Amino acid sequence: MSTKTCIPRLLQGRATGPRHARLPTSSSSSLRSATHCYTQQRRHESNSSAPSYTATILMPKTSFPARSNAKVAQEVYLKVASDDVYAWQKNTLPEESLFILHDGPPYANADVHLGHSVNRIIKDIILRYQILRGRRVSYIPGWDCHGLPIELKVLEKVGKGKDGKKKVAALTAPEIRALARKHADSFVESQMASFREWATMGEWENPYKTMNPDFEIRQLEIFKSMLNNGLIYRSDRPVYWSCESYTALAEAELEYASEHTSKTVYVKFPIENASEVLGSDLAGKKVEFLIWTTTPWTIPSNKAIAVGHGMTYIVVRSEQHGYLLIGESRKEFLETEIGPLEIVSGPFSGEQLTALTYTHPLLTTDTPSQPVFAAHFVTADSGTGLVHMAPGHGMDDYLVCQSHGIDPYSPVNSYGKFDSNLPPELSDLVGKPVLKVGQDMVIERLQTAGALAGTNPAYKHKYPYDWRSKKPVIIRSTPQWFANVGNIKDQALDALENANFHPAIGKHRLSSFVRDRSEWCISRQRVWGVPIPALFDNETGEALLTDESVTHIIKEIEKVGIDMWFTDEEDTTHWVAPQYRESGKSYSKGRDTMDVWFDSGSSWTLIQEKYGNLRKDRETLVDVYSEGSDQHRGWFQSSLLTYVADQHNGKAPYANVITHGFTLDEHGRKMSKSLGNVIAPAQITTSGYKNVAAIGSSGLRLWVAQSEYTTDIAFSTTVMQRVADSLSKIRRTMRYVLGNLDGFDGQEVEYSQLRPTDQYALCQLYDLEQDCKAAYDQFAFNRVIQAVMRHVSRLSASYLDTSKDRIYVDEKTSLSRRSVQTVLCQIFRVYESILSPVIPLLTQEAWHHAPAFIKKNDPDACFSPFVSGWVSAPEEWKNEELRLEFAKLEKIGDAAKIVLARAREDKKIGSSLDACVVVSAPEGSSVLELLKKYESHLAELLVVSAVSVSPSSELASSISSKHWTYASDPVTTGEDTEAESVIVHAVNPELGKCARCWQYTAPAESEICPRCAGVVEKIGEVSL
């Protein structure tokens, strides 16, 4: 009989014949089914009169259920895995190790969706990993509670009275604020309940809300600090304006529709002094500027025309439209728009044209001459080469006109309708919406006046929309409060250099937003928010906004409550600081509130107040900010600007900025309410989605973790089914490991006493732990899951499969069996460590069912894997020599798998145990030496009854007596292909099949082999 040896099972096919109970897989999902499988096979294959050795087989045994029970998981393990763990780490782990993840407040105005779960679960994974690494963490959940959407929502709920009039008109500002507060509170509660169901931990009993009095006071203090630093000012200038919400908007509150359709017009403006400037040959001829605009409604507000620096212009003649002055480079294009053009005069420089004046085509009564200015924003690649300027409706127009002493003019009210500031000739436009009827009427008036040279009723271009109402905005000049971002821009950009961004493109994105911004419109014309603490002189309208005044107002708000600011009081004296009361002036409270980005951007003050002393020696206040990619223009930016403006320390408030993408549906579309494709997380966790059964919070968390969250995240039933399968594989593996630790006393075998196959399993476990730790450190959770699932598959197909002979058949306390249990202990600990940040409910459940020695024999103190901490693989597991040797053996294993499959196809074998293997290698080769070294271990992993190793020269004699053989192609395991050539033969066994272990190692059929005989004798129990 040949010496029993083995080849790594890692790349081998599973044995399909009876050997012993198999590791539960998708076709064998429980330990009970594994036992039943073994018993049935034994009955089928054994003679009815032969003894049964079933009772002598050490089958897995554990109380860990085969399937999860979502209800039990939530009721039994949720509190322990979340609240108890958070409280434990807060009270136990060292304060100086504090890791702070500052919560970007979700908006308290809607039910949760998948985007919320992505955001919350990413944050929770980060926190849990830090706890495992021995760091105390702080996570204070927050909510953004102010702002327009909430105010509009509560006003919609109020509805109309029986008389058809809106009840809103009867509501006072404090009443609206009370309704808004109640509305926000209700969604804070509902969202919080959902977040907690996903096993996310934090200080849920003490969250922050931007509407809390302490938060509002800190926000006002930041405003005062920026005021004292000269960064706050009031100006009547163009701002983005929402006609739906009647308020100014900041750039961060816009989204751009690339397919917006506008009505465009070519308009003629009569030149007054053409011949004086352009030449006497134009004397007596009516020459007109031709301009093109996508906003015809702004024509009544025209105050000047801009020409380009360095551009050249010509006068052309059109049979239909007369003499026109246009950009020389635009002639060819304009002929496609308004017909043939004949050059009459020119070229002229843009600077020459600044001596011209013109009149407004719609104004006939005492029309003043209007100027021409040169401007850098005028280009030769669009329009006519000239730009009509309405300084009340465009920032470029405003800046040029302001430099020439022309004030903004905006005859449009807060509802987006023309107002009574229009000239008498245009009074019929008053009350007409500028984007609708009003614009059409302007075009009609231009047509009537003979000033219209062409129109396009459906010009598609990019246009700003209010990201809340999803309606187009206008630009309108109104008095607003601004923060001078330009003065701190360089400091902010320098501060970003010391922050890490994941993904790295986030730094470029945020930097570009900051770099392109010079001011921040921080005022809003609503009542649900934090007031801008300005008083206004009742006679002059001049604003009183000084350090003394704001300090007094903040103290008054602390005393009487912020809602009092919004009441209509007859006597407002108590709001006026004492030093201003004696001036004889009377003041009114300003009604503007702050931009909600200023609210949330002030949230770092909570961390400063709570942990400022502890963090004063740290580079940054907060370790991690993590939100969606849209927050580069929102919270990331507003937090940076307020922090830099207040702290003056040249630092950003965050060390790491982590961004995730949006959730996409099965068709690759962004999930949104308007599309009706939003999915509630509860459909995944509890009720099931389409044909995918509910997978609980563990499944939801695993989906988030396995996703490449730095890009948009796809959701589909196919993806969720894969997640469910992965979750099932993890659970089955954990259950199998626990089942085979039954009866183990925890006294682990020394590494040096382990078999090479055991050591190789630990080598692979070392790689897993190292890879996952590196991935966690880089916030790359998908790489963690990829590594785990590769290891699970490999583990099941190799070590767990090939070690079953020892774990089931060997004597209970034998070194060989305890060696396997030692490895299984380490697998369980490392898996608990790696998987606990992602699926804490499952790992907590497995921990509950684990033997006492895993919990250091003190289940109360070591109640969770988080208490045990991160399990670091010892360096001795690395074993590079073993890794290289097994890499060679795996190549030989591939060949063995092929020849065994051929034997199985020809019905020579059923199970791989029905065969033996002969491996030959050249005499004196290193591979022969390697095979001889591992000869006593090879058959176990190959799952064959025996393996013999033979020099190539002796191969013929080794297989000559066999009834059948299957030979592999030559296998090379090294650089010297000839010297390293190996042949693998599958051959028939020569001994009998053991009735207990089913290997062909018994003296005769239906008897047991010497090994099994020794075990049975020691057990002293055989069932007949």
From TrEMBL:
Domain of life, per lineage: Eukaryota
UniProt entry keywords in alphabetical sequence: Aminoacyl-tRNA synthetase, ATP-binding, Ligase, Nucleotide-binding, Protein biosynthesis
Single Gene Ontology MF annotation: aminoacyl-tRNA ligase activity
Region (Disordered) location: 12-52
InterPro entries xref list: aa-tRNA-synth_I_CS, aa-tRNA-synth_Ia, Anticodon_Ile_BEm, Ile-tRNA-ligase, Ile-tRNA-ligase_type1, Ile-tRNA_ligase, M/V/L/I-tRNA-synth_anticd-bd, Rossmann-like_a/b/a_fold
Biased composition regions of type Low complexity, renumbered to the chain: 23-36
Enzyme Commission number, as recorded: 6.1.1.5
PROSITE patterns (alphabetical): AA_TRNA_LIGASE_I
Location of the Methionyl/Valyl/Leucyl/Isoleucyl-tRNA synthetase anticodon-binding domain: 758-918
Family the UniProt entry places it in: Belongs to the class-I aminoacyl-tRNA synthetase family.
Protein name (database record): isoleucine--tRNA ligase
